[in-house]
Every structure is written in structure tokens, then in C-alpha cells.
Amino acid sequence: MQQPPSLEPVFVSDTGPYLVSASIEIKYLLRQLLDNGEIICLYPAGKREPFAISTVLAINDDELLFDVSNDAGTNAALTKEGRMLLVGVVNKVKVQFELPNVMLVAYDGRTAIRSGGPVQTLRMQRRDFYRLDIPMSQKIDCVIPLNDGGHTELSITDISLGGLSLLGVSSDLPMQVGDVLRDCRVQLLDIGIIEVDMQICIVIDVTLRNGIKTQRIGCRFFDLSGKMQTLIQRFINKIERQRISRE
């Protein structure tokens, strides 16, 4: 059985493969920690000790609030330099935030730790965005326009803010790596419709359980607008909440 990620901080010389830069995704990760009541660890920036086991109390604009430690010395160490690290786990993946402007404050009749919004966020998984597998019960199709004015539809197997994967073969539209698919449309249940341009990055021949041979196509989005990103993130949040409620 796979062990869950530890809550120890990770210090790497090259943060590039793990750096999360999209503000909407950073907000999503923080919101997951808050909404799910996840246990987190707080550390002085650049150190592994001392640490405080904590939870996120509130997220207000660019301000975060956390439970304090029962040890006054630990709280003093966390706030001494005005910077600290937050380490948590979202969807079984370790996430790490560097937070500025750290101080002790009064909150809701008690003492809490307050910080500014993250100056750096790392996801310790070599992937640009969290990718959601689409449940079989939530069939989502991608409508791809054809040159003759018609269209073809392929099933979406997963989606992220960076792209999506398709399953199926269309005789009207052979899929090749490097091809660009323009003006594609996806109805994200009751969330809304996204309209995207995307490029095919990978094409894999697969055989389904029923013996049917088909293809899995991985695509990346081009210049996804903020509005489209918001719709996708809302869809991901909706499906994740449904999944969590069934566990």
C-alpha cells in the first residue's frame, strides 16, 4: 500500500519542474486545504525545525490564518523572520507554500498565525496542473469542428488547466502529434461551455476491456483565457466534492 506523502519540507535547487504559477490553481490548492480540514505543518522558512502541526482557519483575499502551536517558542520561531513554509497534501500530492508577512494576531477570540499570500508554491509532482479523471458516470464529450463544416465528438477521459485527454477514433479526423484543433467546445455539465484551441501532444493505441481497439489522445491548451480557466476549475472542484462525499 502506497504511503501518503510526508509533511516534511523539501528543498530543491531546481524548483522549475514543481513550481505552480497559475494564481487560480494556487487558490484551488489552498481552498482544498481549508475546505477539507487538512492537517498541515508550518516551518520557519528554510528550516525543518521547529515545526507546528496546524490547520488553515481562513482565507481572506491575500491573507491566510492558521492555528498556533501550543508551544510559545515554536510560535516565536515561526514568526521571527516574517516568513514560513506551509507543507500539506492535496489529492495525495505534497504541496509547499512559502508565505510572507507572518505574525501572531487575535482571531475569533484566540491567537492565530497570519500570513500574506504565497510568494512561491511547489507541487511535488512533475506535472504543471492537477489532472482530474472524469468518472464514468459523468460522460463529457469534446466537439471538434471539421473542415467541411461538420463536427466530430470524442469522449474526454481527464482534464486539467493545461489540457485534456480524448478517447476514440474519428475517420473524419485522423489524429497526429503536432496537429492543432481549433474552436473545440466542451460542455462541463451545468458549469458552462469552454471553447479552446489545443495541440495534440501524444497519440497512443489502446485496447478497451471489451476488445475494441481505439486511441487515447493527449492535448494541451493554447492561451486558455481566465474565464475558461475558471470554468474548468469550478468543474474540477464540483467533481472532487462529489467524489469526497461518496468516500
Q: What's the topology here?
A:
Elements: H1 23-35, E1 40-44, E2 52-54, E3 56-60, E4 63-67, H2 72-80, E5 84-90, E6 93-99, E7 103-107, E8 110-116, E9 120-123, E10 132-133, E11 141-145, E12 151-159, E13 163-167, E14 180-188, E15 192-207, E16 213-222, H3 226-246
Antiparallel strand pairs: 1-2, 1-5, 3-4, 4-8, 5-6, 6-9, 7-8, 10-12, 11-12, 11-14, 12-13, 13-16, 14-15, 15-16
Descriptors:
five-stranded antiparallel beta sheet, Pnp Oxidase, Chain A, 247 residues, elongated, alpha+beta, 16 strands, Thrombin, subunit H, 3 helices, six-stranded antiparallel β-barrel
What's the total helix number?
Answer: 3
What CATH architecture of the largest domain do you see? Beta Barrel
Percentage of residues in helical conformation:
10-25%
CATH H-level homologous superfamily name of the largest domain:
predicted glycosyltransferase like domains
